[in-house]
Amino acid sequence: MMIRGSAVLIMGAAAFSLAAFLWYGYDASEKKEDRPLPEFALKNYTGGEVRQSDFLGKPIILVVWASWCPFCAEELEHLSVMQKEFGEAINVVAINRAESRDVVMRRSIASDTATGTIFLLDPDDMYYRAIGGFAMPEILLADRQGMIRLHKRGLVNQEEMRRYIQDLLAL
User: Fold this and answer.
1) How far apart are CA 88 and CA 103, in angstroms?
2) Which of 169, 127, 116 is nearest to 144 (CA)?
3) Residues 44-84: pLDDT tens digits?
């Protein structure tokens, strides 16, 4: 009976650890990089094609998100504030992971949140794989030439994001 109780306790702890790992992601890690943003040609919500090269000339803050992710919704709100604050000096691009336009619009996170943000659909989840996605949200900060300067995993608060954007603008 004691062995059975211990096994249940260990399995419960393992399940809790796995759930926490999946919920919070591996961590809110920060990785400085110096490589180009992966190319993309994705559809926006009206069906128009948008390419990564369309954003060259201004820093790009790119978030990969999903409507089921509560941290993503919060990050989209932060990025909306940053888009309003920095205006035309930056591009904020949000790429949805493997959800249809109908699902995204029904959950209405994107339409309610981010004025000025460019929302794109990646129904095959190819971009997430191309960036080595591991957590949610995944945030890439790229310079005017489209070179990734920072790759963040997990939620970034507004003050931290403001500093990152200021650093990008100073390049």
Assistant:
1) 29
2) 169
3) 999 999 999 999 999 999 999 999 999 999 999 999 999 99
Is residue 35 a contact partner of residue 148, using CB atoms and an 8 Å limit?
yes
| Residues 6 or more apart in contact with residue 55 via CB below 8 angstroms | 91, 93, 146
Cβ-in-10-Å burial (0-12, 13-18, 19+) of 115 comes to: exposed
Tokens linked to 159: 């003050």
Q: What is the mean pLDDT of the chain?
A: 85
Confidence of residue 109 (pLDDT cuts 50, 70, 90): low
Residue 158 to residue 75: CA distance in whole angstroms? 9
What backbone torsions phi and psi does residue 47 show, to the nearest 5 degrees?
Answer: 95, -5
The residue-averaged pLDDT of 142-153 equals 97
pLDDT tier at 131 (50, 70, 90 boundaries)?
A: very high
- Closest to 40 in 3D by CA, of 146, 169, 153: 146
Q: In whole angstroms, what is the distance from residue 129 CA to residue 110 CA?
A: 22
